[in-house]
Design goal:
The complex is a heterodimer. By secondary structure, chain A is mainly α. The radius of gyration of chain A is 20 Å and the shape is rod-shaped. Chain B is an alpha/beta fold. Chain B is built from 14 helices and eleven strands. The two termini of chain B are about 45 Å apart. In chain B, about 50% of the residues are buried. The chains are: A mainly alpha, B alpha/beta. At the A-B interface, α1 and α2 of A face β1, α1, α2 and α14 of B.
């Protein structure tokens, strides 16, 4: 069977790799979303008014912001993978 | 007013160590998941490495950086989790040492049994010993912050030392010499001596709309006017009865006058560890209200009334599961099924001065809280107002609105109790020496 490929189109192996990459990135995004939810729960549950805990909460809040940023970056790369397939 | 509100699980113990360890465990679990996410990104990077010829393809270097960042965050979170666990251990060590010190005098065997866990904690982390010492030292400093900082206080203290006025001399002696010995009422300590004679009469009786559901309401139900004690008889949905006693502070600076709420009673209870006339009058008011020995009696007290509240809780006469002490010259050491709510201003000459700041360790049930604040600003002449009821009303309002998990839980427990109460009959009593 003849398959016609547009110039610059990815090969079957490359499509498979892109799809594999998307699957791994989906796993990463799902996990990061769960991590963010659990970090917010930790912040909500750590409502002790104490200097030690306030420092801990501040650190957790910073962590949520950083993880959110990373999640957006992973989503950008996932979109690039999908653009490569289509 | 100046100070920031501090709420701890008792003394220097900011958060109950077990609850802090639970947070650390959850942080470990989140860190592991974050590491998984990083690994997924790395696997994606590896898989996508063969797509170099695809025109529209992901930015592989950026993807690598992203995966590495997630793994780094996971490592940092794991490190924070470890730090949180160590902090919990340090709080436990400080608490155990404080308990050991208090037990060592009258219960040396019990004090000795704590040593194994102390040794285990110290062996677990080399710096823990210094951390626990630092926590205790920090508390010792913070718990009397602002004490006698005002210029008038220093002047007045100097004058008091020269004064021949008996109450002032007593107060000076209490401030200067007696605090360490008498501030914390040691475990198992009972008042000695017989009950001094007092006459207790009913001043008023009324129906109250319900039980108090906030810390502010609890302190606002302390009696004023001529009554020194109020007892609320609460009838529950199942027909059972419980009592709340509200005991006010010193009314007279005299000794052995008509009013038992005087410096004489202060001295008997605080320094001599004997039944005072005011303590005896409180028990008599409870008896008149119908509280038999063994009845459920919770107590709220302010100043001298708080010392009485602590003594009632430690007496074992009643089943006392909640004690609230406000500006108290003493801090009772309670059993693990008794909740202590302690409010004090670090610059209150009575609440922090006479109590010596209170014990560094936690006392009572895990739900117990210590609420503290430096009340007076340094622009004021004296910190005497730090001991006043109005000042404590403000602090307890702040605590009620703080959102602190322990205060929220306490309020929920008060609300649950109030929902079960059908009627509240309040009787106020006035006591006199015959």
């Amino acid at each position: 069977m003849l398959t016609s490929l547009h110039p610059g189109s990815p090969s079957a192996e490359e499509v498979a790799a892109l799809l594999g990459g998307v699957r791994h990135l989906d796993d990463a995004i799902d996990t990061v979303i769960q991590v963010r939810i659990e970090l917010w729960r930790l912040i909500a549950d750590s409502h002790w008014r104490s200097h030690a805990v306030e420092a801990l909460r501040a650190s957790l809040l910073e962590r949520v912001a950083a993880v959110t940023e990373n999640c957006a970056a992973v989503e950008t790369q996932r979109s690039a993978c999908l653009a490569g397939i289509s | 007013m100046s100070g920031e509100l501090e709420i701890t699980s008792g003394g220097a113990i900011s958060v109950d160590p077990e609850q802090m360890r639970a947070v650390a465990d959850r942080m470990w679990a989140v860190a592991a998941r974050l590491a998984d996410a990083g690994e997924s990104v790395r696997r994606a990077h590896q898989t996508l490495a063969s797509t170099w010829g695809v025109p529209a393809r992901p930015d592989l270097p950026a993807l690598w950086v992203c995966g590495q960042a997630l793994v780094d965050h996971a490592d940092e979170l794991a490190s924070d989790a470890r730090g949180t666990g160590i902090m919990a251990d340090a709080f436990e060590l400080a608490d155990l040492r404080s308990r050991q010190e208090m037990l060592s005098i009258e219960h040396p065997a019990e004090a000795g049994r704590l040593q194994e866990r102390i040794d285990e904690l110290i062996a677990s982390y080399p710096e823990l010993d210094a951390m626990a010492t630092s926590i205790t030292a920090g508390w010792a400093q913070r718990s009397q912050e602002g004490m006698l900082d005002q210029w008038m206080d220093r002047f007045a203290l100097g004058a008091m030392r020269l004064s021949a006025l008996v109450p002032m001399a007593v107060l000076t002696r209490m401030l200067g010499d007696a605090t360490d010995a008498a501030g914390s009422v040691l475990p198992g300590k009972r008042l000695t001596g017989g009950a001094p004679p007092v006459a207790v009469t009913r001043v008023s009786r009324s129906r109250v709309g319900g039980s108090a559901t906030t810390l502010t309401q609890l302190v606002q139900r302390l009696p004023g006017g001529e009554a020194q004690v109020a007892v609320e008889k609460r009838t529950h949905g199942d027909g059972s009865v419980s009592y709340m006693a509200y005991v006010d502070g010193t009314r007279s600076l005299g000794f052995a006058g008509d009013d038992p709420w005087d410096m004489g009673s202060n001295w008997d209870l605080y320094a001599a560890g004997e039944q005072s006339a005011a303590y005896a009058a409180t028990l008599e008011a409870l008896r008149l209200a119908g509280a038999e020995p063994g009845a459920r009696v919770d107590v709220v007290g302010y100043s001298q009334g708080a010392a009485i509240a602590g003594a009632v809780a430690m007496s074992g006469v009643y089943e006392t599961s909640r004690v609230m002490i406000v500006g108290s010259p003493t801090v009772p050491v309670l059993n693990e099924d008794q909740t202590l709510i302690r409010a004090f201003h670090t610059d209150d000459p009575v609440g922090a001065g006479l109590s010596g700041g209170g014990p560094a360790g936690a006392t009572g049930s895990p739900e117990s809280v210590t609420i503290s604040r430096e009340y007076a600003t340094h622009r004021e002449a004296t910190s005497v107002q730090s001991h006043l009821r109005d000042a404590y009303d403000q602090t307890l309002e702040l605590a009620d609105g703080s959102g602190d998990a322990r205060v929220v839980a306490l309020r929920a427990s008060l609300e649950a109790e109030a929902a079960d109460v059908v009627t509240v009959e309040r009787t106020e009593y006035r006591a006199t020496r015959p």
